[in-house]
Amino acid sequence: xxxxxxxxxxxxxxxxxxxxxxxxxxxxxxxxxxxxxxxxxxxxxxxxxxxxxxxxxxxxxxxxxxxxxxxxxxxxxxxxxxxxxxxxxxxxxxxxxxxxxxxxxxxxxxxxxx
Length: 114
Prior knowledge:
By secondary structure, the chain is mainly β. It has a domain at 24-101: Immunoglobulins (Immunoglobulin-like, Sandwich), CATH 2.60.40. Helices cover 0% and strands 41% of the residues. The protein is built from no helices and 9 strands. It has strands spanning 18-20, 25-28, 33-39, 47-50, 53-54, 61-66, 69-74, 83-88, 93-101. Strands 2-9-8-4-5 form a 5-stranded mixed beta sheet, with no helix packed on it. Strands 1-3-7-6 form a 4-stranded antiparallel beta sheet, with no helix packed on it. A hairpin with a 2-residue loop joins strand 4 (47-50) and strand 5. The termini are far apart. It comes from Coilia grayii. This is Ig-like domain-containing protein.
């Protein structure tokens, strides 16, 4: 008589944490803004968000990964791009504020009286 045999395999997946957090950025309209963070795992996948909105790579956003370093570039920023940006590993989040200042021009008028 054969008895049923069962096997259970338990694995643990290490948590992906941040070794370098995102930092707040101030920039001017028309520039590119770069947000960068570093995780404990080189194979980590992250999601980038602006508030609740998940960001996708395209003309506005570039996402790069080099080793454990994750970078988001916001191209040609506008004042409307200001806000909280989040890098999410699934285990932890790093947040930073992007502040975009409008381009204000000052003109000097010179009058010459003779």
